[in-house]
């Protein structure tokens, strides 16, 4: 968490300088390395991340590791809830996916949707495609579900029956939609969209356009967003200043003022329900046995710092067309509804 948490996004566009986009791309590497370290000391299991990301010799702070743990747990449970409600007859769009390994984890758990899409910077996608093609542990699960012996695509794209990765700009919606449709995105399917520290790098207008596009494109959908929150206070301002020094300007920080402003960005752009929770509250709701396990991995003597970090990030989820998913609207109307956070 904190200012060096994973923040992955999109390609460059005329309204951003090349330097700004390079800075944002660098945060993808930082975040992936932080995740790799947390996995290496036992916070959660992920046998695939090591094939995308090097292990850094520098030890990461305990509060950072716990922040990533809460983030991974929370997003994972919302994804699984959506998959269970749709009986996996759906599609997932991971926007700004970076080196995320959710596709491979879901396959191991026999929870794959009809198709899983990833979108990110072409440069990041090129690197990820190379890793997939050159490592059988990554390519074999995709080929096993594919009807052909080889995977389609070039350096900026890879497409198969159940998995696609696309280099595209989330701010250029016509081109994004065109590329997704070329990879057989199905607007009729229930659709889950996931963004993690992505919207904050877009201007409020650009992120609103993306949120509105998602609402208008899919009749039945859910949108999960992991973002900064409470950014008006002094701690939030320090986070902004630290990122700015790294050429990462938080162009979309305005909707990150509060949990209410996070929810409102969805409700005012075509979504029917929206809920939000800061990560400290989410962390407090995790199963106690699992929390005790990860807290025993390393000593943390500054609990106040952990709370500061956790209260400046949140998980927001919005739904539309939920009547076709049975209990999804009521289930997500209040934080977590009847769902219990489980260990991964």
Describe this protein's structure.
- This protein is an alpha/beta fold.
- The protein has a single domain, classed as Vaccinia Virus protein VP39 (Rossmann fold, 3-Layer(aba) Sandwich), CATH 3.40.50.150.
- It contains 13 helices and nine strands.
- The protein has helices spanning 18-40, 62-86, 102-108, 122-134, 136-144, 173-182, 204-217, 234-244, 259-267, 279-285, 288-295, 303-310, 328-333; strands spanning 91-95, 115-120, 152-154, 157-159, 163-167, 191-196, 221-228, 273-278, 313-320.
- It has a nine-stranded mixed β-sheet with strand order 3-4-5-2-1-6-7-9-8, sandwiched between helices.
- The radius of gyration is 19 Å and the shape is globular.
CATH superfamily: Vaccinia Virus protein VP39
Helices and strands, in order, run as: HHEHEHHEEEHEHEHHEHHHEH
What is the count of helical runs?
Answer: 13
User: Percent helix among the residues?
Assistant: 40-55%
Computed over alpha carbons, the radius of gyration is 19 Å
Q: If you average the pLDDT, what whole number results?
A: 88
Q: Which percent band covers the strand fraction? A: 5-15%
Strand order in the sheet with the most strands = 3-4-5-2-1-6-7-9-8
Number of domains: 1
CATH structural architecture: 3-Layer(aba) Sandwich
